[in-house]
Amino acid sequence: MSMRITAEPVERLIEEFSRLPGIGPKTASRLTFWLLRGGDEQARSLADAIRELKEKTTLCSQCFNITDTDPCAICSNPNRDHSVICVVEEPLNVLAIERAHEYRGLYHVLHGRISPLDGLTPEKLKLQELRARVGAGGIGEVIIATNPTTEGFATAHYISRILSQFPVKVTRLAHGLPMGGDLDYADEVTISRALQGRQEITEPRSDQNGRR
Predict the structure, then answer these.
(1) Is the distance from CB of 133 to CB of 85 less than 8 angstroms?
(2) What are the strands, taking DSSP E only, across 80-157?
(3) Are residues 66 and 51 in the same domain?
(4) Within a domain: residue 205?
(5) Distance in angstroms (rounded) separating the CA atoms of residues 156 and 113
(6) What is the pTM of this model?
(7) What is the mean pLDDT of residues 40-66?
(8) How far is the C-alpha of 187 from the C-alpha of 202, rounded, in Å?
């Protein structure tokens, strides 16, 4: 039986911080003791922000991005180009693309990418919802901005295939993005150039039943 060396609430918060991605035990300990030294208002503000994160956010019913209003601010903005949809894997990718100030269309968040080894099959992503959005009409271009990984390329190919029956231009971000990287870590200039240099993906047209 190991002996506890500090107060139980301190150990608990260190443990919870350690569960977060990219935070090890040392960083978790520093964050905990920083909060402990800070004022009560600072700790309460952080606790309230975490609580509201879970209570006041939802998914946009159109693009499936994280939002506190439905539809989200992007989907409801009349100044955006509603004829273009940029497909991304995660909500973080939307933030990355928006920071580049190059893209003015809408988004569609898949919440993952096809990865059978991880149990992520097409049915578990927002792919049929994307197909329905395009099938409803009014969309001239779909930009596939999945990450440049093996799974990202497989997802891009799947998307181009299920959209091949529609009269819509399907493009892919240019490969200025590093192979195996994530959009979240790309700088604004790289993302901007990838958007400007996107290339069209061509698939044999299929009929309404998916026959080619």
Answers:
(1) yes
(2) 81-88, 105-109, 141-144
(3) no
(4) no
(5) 9
(6) 0.78
(7) 95
(8) 28
Whether 176 shows a pLDDT value over 80: the answer reads: no
- Between the alpha carbon of residue 130 and those of residues 126, 134, 143, 157, the distances in Å are 6, 6, 12, 14
108-113: Cβ within 8 A, 24+ apart: 108/63, 108/64, 108/133, 109/63, 109/64, 109/65, 110/64, 110/146, 110/155, 111/64, 113/89, 113/146, 113/147, 113/149, 113/151, 113/152, 113/154, 113/155
> Residue 200: its pLDDT value, please?
79
Looking at the predicted structure, is the pLDDT value of residue 178 above 90?
no
- The string of pLDDT tens digits covering residues 109-137 is 999 999 998 999 999 999 999 999 999 99
* Beta bridge mates, 105: 81
Could you tell me the residue range of the domain that residue 36 belongs to?
A: 8-56
Of the ranges 58-62, 97-101, 187-191, which one carries the lowest mean pLDDT score?
187-191
The count of domains in the chain is 2
Place of tokens 């700790």: 43
* Most distant CA pair in the chain, distance: 68
